[in-house]
Write a structure and sequence with these properties.
By secondary structure, the chain is of the alpha+beta class. It contains 13 helices and 21 strands. The protein folds into two domains: 190 residues, Phosphorylase Kinase, domain 1 (2-Layer Sandwich); 204 residues, Transferase(Phosphotransferase), domain 1, CATH 1.10.510. It is 28% helix and 17% strand. Helix 9 runs antiparallel to helix 11. The longest helix is centred in the middle third of the chain and has 21 residues. It is an enzyme of class 2 (transferase).
Length: 489
């Protein structure tokens, strides 16, 4: 779950032997808020945050308590709802457990935590005041972990301040629906408390008080990539899409190759990529992160966890987790940036529900790469940049995990792309190809022949109805993508 409005749904899957078995599915409302706007959007989410929760008043011990009481929530989820995002997580035992059993006591928690010295420790009442008592207009969104609220605290301390002043933060609450939320909460602190990078969201602090578990992050003003790609009327410009891809790749490269201990992110998707005011991208939600293999180990064996449409096929089938599992997920997000389509979308015609499977014919044949480009861009994209991105996505999505590139290779391949200026809308060749998407016939001056038939040796012939320009394919001038690491001594 990110720190911005989004719906996140949980699906359980265990892996046994060489076969994955489907478990209990827990999902949110399939409407996902795409058609809901304004105040109703926030109240709708807020209702779902509170409607299934029981509010319990209890005294809060210790000095500095602002109100003398705290809120305890017990959240339940309906299993008969559907959604686009369906993360796969292990199921806690079906036996009924109390909150005290699901969330260990504070002393035990302190032993499990690897607290970084720079993290601030907040009290529950400090965060309650910072978010204005978790009121509806402070709500940013919710997910499997819990609800996220906007708040304001002192720049250099924990004191709540007036809205619009001090440091703006996002406060993530933990639901009490089971042990998995507690484990994700621990993972968030243990990873983000130690990992510092410009392309990872900053964890500012945390709260452990009675059974309350909250996390405090930097506020990402532009929300998630998911919202900008799929829920906004105006499309993201091409250069910004490439910038976001590069930033996200740098974040994953740091986790895989630069961190003191390699980390596999395991839930790379558009809803977990957050954007600041300048569209700099940062990875959020480390609840499913896992230490990578070290030494002579080739993989980590674990339950299958992730999101349908993004998880690597070999990981889903075997439970063997490697850094190349993240690379596959990155390839899916590249496709989403290219096409403007969701990884899984059952509202599309048959054969187009799964983005990767629909796109494979166009990935494998470079002459048809333009069919993958988001039509909302209306040709405002770099031809060379799009061609290279398609090539890169094809490598990331290889069915053979061993030949997928490392994230450092991907970073090097993406670095020049945001600045390319060869816009397709100024290319007569691309315009001709675009007009031929539906086998549009030429006018009477071509004798009624289709555009696709007007080729010679695989190259389009100049038509009297076209201006006198160069008609060679632009992708013929693009060298094949080679690994920069392969040439190193």
């Amino acid at each position: 779950m990110g720190l911005v409005p989004k719906a996140m749904n949980k699906v359980a899957m265990d892996v046994g032997n060489s076969k994955a078995r489907m478990g209990k599915m827990v999902t949110d409302d399939g409407d996902d808020g795409a058609s809901v706007t304004g105040c109703w959007f926030k109240f709708r989410f807020f209702g779902r945050c509170l409607s299934a929760r029981t509010k319990v008043d209890s005294s809060v011990s210790g000095s500095g308590s602002a109100s003398g009481s705290s809120l305890q929530y017990a959240e339940s989820k309906s299993t008969n709802e559907t959604s686009r995002d369906q993360p796969v997580v292990p199921v806690v035992s079906s036996s009924t457990t109390s909150n005290a059993e699901s969330v260990p006591s504070t002393p035990k928690i302190e032993e499990e935590l690897k607290i970084s010295s720079q993290l601030r420790k907040f009290t529950y009442n400090e965060l309650k005041l910072a978010t204005r008592s978790f009121r509806p207009d402070s709500l940013l969104g919710e997910g499997g972990f819990g609800c996220v609220f906007k708040g304001w605290v002192n720049e250099n301390g924990n004191t709540p301040v007036k809205p619009g002043t001090g440091l703006t933060v996002a406060v993530k609450t933990l639901n009490h629906d089971g042990l998995q939320g507690h484990k994700e909460w621990l993972a968030e602190i243990n990873y983000l408390g130690e990992l510092i990078h410009p392309n990872l969201v900053t964890l500012i602090g945390y709260c452990i008080e009675d059974d309350q578990r909250l996390l405090v992050y930097e506020f990402m003003a532009r929300g998630s990539l998911e919202n900008h790609l799929f829920k906004r009327s105006l499309p993201l410009p091409w250069a910004i899409r490439m910038k976001i891809a590069l930033n996200a790749a740098k974040g994953l490269a740091f986790l895989h190759e630069e961190a003191e201990r390699p980390v596999i992110y395991r839930d790379f998707k558009t809803s977990n990529i957050l954007l600041d005011v300048e569209y700099n991208a940062k990875l959020s939600d480390f609840g499913l992160a896992k230490d990578g293999p070290e030494g002579d180990k080739t993989h980590v064996s674990t339950r299958v966890m992730g999101t349908y449409g993004y998880a690597a096929p070999e990981y889903v089938m075997t439970g063997h987790l490697t850094a190349k599992s993240d690379v596959y997920s990155f390839g899916v997000v590249l496709l989403e940036l290219l096409t403007g389509r969701r990884s899984m979308d059952k509202s599309r015609p048959p054969g187009e529900h799964n983005l990767v499977e629909w796109s494979r014919p166009y990935l494998d044949e470079k002459r048809r790469f333009y069919r993958l480009i988001d039509p909302r861009l209306e040709g405002r994209f770099s031809i060379k940049g799009a061609q290279r991105t398609v090539q890169l996505a094809a490598r990331c999505l290889s069915r053979d995990a061993k030949i997928r590139p490392a994230m450092s290779e991907i970073v090097l391949a993406l670095e020049p792309l945001p600045s390319l200026k060869d816009m397709a809308c100024s290319s007569s060749y691309f315009q001709a190809m675009s007009n031929g998407r539906g086998s549009v016939t030429m006018n009477a001056r071509t004798g009624g022949r289709s555009l696709q038939s007007q080729t010679r040796n695989g190259q389009p012939m100049r038509s009297p109805s076209m201006p006198n320009r160069y008609y060679g394919s632009p992708y013929q001038e693009i060298p094949p993508l080679r690994s920069p690491i392969a040439n190193k001594p």
